[in-house]
Amino acid sequence: AKHTLECHGRIPGIKTCIHGIKAKLLSLALKDERIRNRGLRPGCNTELQKSLGIPGNPGMSDPWGRCIRQLTGIVQKVETHARKVTHAIETSSAKRQKTSKKKSSKATPIAPEDVRPELEKQHVHHLYDAIAPQWDRTRYKGWPRVDAFLNSLKKDTPGGTPLVADLGCGNGKYMKNAGFAVGMDISSQLIGICREKGFEVQVADALAVPYRGGLFDGALSIAVLHHLSTKERRLAALREVIRVLRPGGCGLVYAWALEQGQAEGDVGARQFPAQDIFVPFHYRVQAGVPPPPASTEDSTSSSSAKPGVAPAYDAEKKSVVYQRYCHVYKKGELEGLLLEAGTTGATDGSTVAIEDSYYDMSNWCVRFRKKS
Hints:
2 domains; Rossmann fold; seven-stranded mixed beta sheet
């Protein structure tokens, strides 16, 4: 509709331009002694001829006349199109007014960003924007079992190039090995880093993914669910992972585990006092950058989550300590959420089939397939 209105707005200018060209051609014709002496044949715009002071009839028997007659035909086509467009706009406007009266009593949906909990805004969204450069420097290598999942998609896809959606792509460390991949993340700073690397990415919310449903061969949700603060929001994010997959497509979900240290050589395993916690992240301060005001909160260990905990400065480590909100998952919790998300709107059980669940890199992990 916007394009149609823009085109309609240009029509008067187009007509004026064409009339100007006609006038110029007629003026040139007058300067041609052969045309002046030969006279003019009937069939063109007499008003324009009179306004230009051309004697006799406005038609011409040579190329000048043919050009002018062609321009006259173009003007007539433009005017016909203008009438059609005007009619279409008036009809569309009437329909919209009629529809808006019917919908005026219904509730207006709220944009996802308007309902994000303050806890997530402060301790997830703003935090990752603040730490994005260091996050990219230290999180550059993908986990082997995630890469293995992506390689399995290549084997299962005709042509070997699967279409993959990375929902919470961070700095894009999995996108380079994912066939044809598109990604999204809530952090505009991390998305900026991805774009510098040449990836196809957008700033978006994992609860309102801007991709068409039933399209992708594979979908990733790596280290996203543990940053969502309510069960309803976790279910909504999982429903989006399921939605974008084509029937038969596979998804992989990773979320931080409560029971860490489950595997031999589990690097960085932690002990948590509760499932909803703040986990400190030390951001190295560059030389010459003043530290933020000190915080009275304990910033050296994980603590139960509560909103309003400010970043603190650790003078010994010369770093700003940010508090990341996380909900860590008990064994079996992730599978239960996924099956529940898969039953939304389904009439014959869950729309997903769990193919594997395991512990990896301090995360509980689930690989599933969307049923055909």
